[in-house]
Amino acid sequence: SAGIRRSLSKLTTSYSNGEVSVLRFSESELEREQTWKCHDFEAWTVAWDSTDRHVFYTGGDDCLLKIWDTRCPEGVRTIRRHSMGVTAIQSHPSTAHLLATGSYDETVFFWDTRTMRTPVEETAVGGGVWRLKWNRKDPQLLAVAAMHGGACVLRYSADSQTAQCVSKFTKHESMVYGIDWAEDGALASCSFYDHSLYLWK
Q1: Where is the signal peptide, in residue numbers (predicted)?
Q2: Which of 2, 64, 88, 168 has its CA 20 to 30 A from that of 45?
């Protein structure tokens, strides 16, 4: 997994050995600045925080969600709430302190990053979560690639701290691993097992 912080010209990458690196990039160079041993098993995902430019999150096959700060050599916090590997993390692009995480445990958690003691909401999606993607035009919508559970869209209300499934797509013949929003509000989902890319609303 990889995450980009354009304002700092930095890139985070996660590796199968549990490490995560921060790299600085320019037009002609890519230089590794820091590397952490973040997880005991595969580090499945890494994502920058949308509010604090120094903070990023990692998720691993050890069931842990971890918070890191590029100014600190040690991790800021370790959270174990998912019962299986943490595979997807998305900080909301416009709503401060809102974070979504997904796991092989088939659950999406919504967090207030100011507390992180417990999720403010959790939603079962019927399959292991591999990718999450917030919609920039409708900030309540979160697209979910739920592997054997297909793809779905959750509507999350920050006011009531509730989420519900508002759309589901199950035409893939195998596990859904990728999902993203198109400019017109449609969704693209894919599975490398059935060699298919679908556009749907």
Answers
A1: none
A2: 168
| 146 and 190 within one domain | yes
Question: Could you give the number of structural domains in the chain?
Answer: 2
Write down how long the chain is: 201
Rg (C-alpha) for the chain, rounded Å, is 16
* Angle at CA of residue 18, ends 108 and 95, nearest 5°: 35
**Residues 105 and 69 both lie in one domain:** no
pLDDT confidence band for 72 (50 / 70 / 90): confident
Q: What is the pLDDT of residue 201?
A: 83
pTM tops 0.85, yes or no: yes
**Sheet strand arrangement including 121-124:** 86-91, 98-103, 107-112, 121-124
The order of strands in the sheet holding 30-37 is 2-5, 10-14, 19-25, 30-37
CA distance from start to end of the chain: 26
Domain that holds residue 3: 1-80
